[in-house]
Write a structure and sequence with these properties.
Number of domains: 3
Bound molecules: nicotinamide-adenine-dinucleotide
Number of helices: 17
Radius of gyration: 22 Å
Distance between the termini: 31 Å
Largest sheet: 8 strands, mixed
Helix content: 40-55%
Mean pLDDT: 97
Order of helices and strands: EHEHHEHEHEHEEHEHHHHHHHHHH
CATH topology of the largest domain: Rossmann fold
């Protein structure tokens, strides 16, 4: 089956960017959203985006902003919009019941071959698919924000999805250009919480919660903790980034992983306090830092000396090994490449191939120290069996 017509369901922050790369790849795109205002903003974003790319000579050969925009239609009636769709990419609110309802509506009203791909960050693809008549046609296509600039797309197999649907998802994803480097598509073989990148990075929060709670109890200034936690080459310090993303997002992610994977992910004292007080970071003007005068510029000249940086690499390598054990991916290289493409920093696995014994010892020590059994090294890491899974 050749994909020609794509429906972009949800034209918000993610949807408008995903539509942009689909259009650049030459697909016809129909955008569907319930909000007229969002549709107008999405059209404007795409028009000005293509005009800028045209000026810079970065549009595909022979295309102009005007010819590309001709391939973008809008339609507020979903059942009607999907009549000729080959692929529907869904990026509406992160609510399971809404995604399920829309998945059913799409499958009921689209051609037999049409694939429904959800951009969810956390909801199970299998769960979304279970209410529709063709779960074999339901996959995940998880883009990173903003979709035109972030290289990674994770294509996720719902438990009942067919290999053919996966092949089509991967094939389309590979055709979508990235404006900053080469597109990287990771095939996610099992539908497990967080897929690859979010999952591997998630348990670092267990250690961060411990550090910030310790600092709070000892009245150590956030700037000093931030100096410990931050990578000097990163575009933002760690605590600035935590404020920028939003403390509510971190709080909800903690609850989500606590429910799905281990109670050790439960939000710590400081995070819970920020959430309850509404000091959510940039969006409320205050989090760790004051944002009322714009982005804070913390002074990192003095360190608190609380952080052992080996712990982060040990925790992420351990989680990488867990998803290898679970069969989410078959190769540690995919994990490293996905993290690099989705987050712009290197993954932990290459380093772990020669240092897994030391990393396992670090985890034994810190799981005791923090009283968190989830931090214990898994068999795959301890034994080094993953090394051959290239
Ligand atoms: N923002 C991110 O960084 C990011 C990254 C990866 C994945 N995601 C996922 O992408 C999805 C969308 O996130 P977003 O940040 O673009 O949200 P958003 O709020 O910007 O956009 C959601 C859009 O869905 C529309 N919508 C709501 N109900 C609808 C319906 N019944 N039919 C059609 N449109 C409807 C809303 O009007 C809105 O425009 C979520 O599932 C989110 O978890 C987000």
């Amino acid at each position: 089956m050749e994909v020609k017509n794509i429906v972009m369901l949800g034209f918000g922050d993610m949807g408008k960017g995903i539509a942009q790369v689909c259009l650049m790849a030459g697909y016809s795109v129909t955008a569907v959203d319930v909000s007229d205002e969002i549709i107008q903003k999405g059209l404007e974003y795409n028009r000005t985006g293509f005009e800028k790319l045209e000026e810079k000579g970065k549009l595909p050969k022979g295309a102009t902003a005007a010819t590309i925009m001709e391939k973008l239609k809008v339609n507020k009636n979903l059942s009607n919009a999907v009549k000729n769709a080959d692929l529907v990419i869904e990026a509406v609110l992160e609510k399971p019941d809404i995604k399920q309802q829309l998945c059913k509506e799409v499958i009921d009203n689209s051609p037999e071959h049409c694939i429904f791909a959800s951009n969810t960050s956390s909801i199970s693809i299998t769960e979304i698919a279970q209410v529709c008549d063709k779960p074999e046609n339901v996959i995940g296509m998880h883009f990173f924000n903003p979709a035109p600039l972030m290289r990674l797309i994770e294509v996720i197999k719902g438990d009942k999805a067919s290999e053919e649907a996966m092949d089509i998802g991967v094939k389309v994803a590979k055709t979508l250009p990235c404006l900053r480097g080469e597109r990287y598509v990771a095939r996610v073989l099992k539908d497990r919480p967080g897929f690859i990148v979010n999952r591997v990075l998630a348990p670092s929060s267990i250690y961060t919660n411990y550090i910030v709670d310790l600092a709070y109890e000892n009245e150590i200034p956030w700037e000093q903790v931030d100096a410990d936690l931050s990578n000097p080459n990163a575009p933002m310090t760690s605590l600035t980034l935590a404020d920028f993303t939003g403390r509510d997002i971190a709080f909800n992610a903690g609850l989500y992983y606590a429910e799905k994977i281990s109670a050790d992910f439960k939000p710590g004292k400081v995070l819970t306090m920020h959430y309850n007080k509404g000091t959510l970071g940039k969006k409320t003007g205050k989090g760790y830092y004051d944002w009322s005068k714009g982005r804070p510029q913390p002074d990192l000249s003095k360190k608190a000396g609380l952080v052992d940086r080996r712990v982060f690499i040990a925790i992420t390598a351990n989680e990488g090994c867990r998803i290898l054990e679970e069969g989410v991916v078959k190769s540690w290289k995919v994990i490293d490449e996905a993290i690099q493409a989705g987050m712009n920093f290197p993954g932990p696995m290459q380093y772990a191939t020669t240092n897994y014994k030391e990393l396992s010892n670090v985890l034994e020590e810190y799981s005791e120290k923090l009283g968190k059994s989830y931090l214990k090294p898994c068999e795959m890491l301890k034994s080094g069996k993953f090394v051959d899974m290239q």
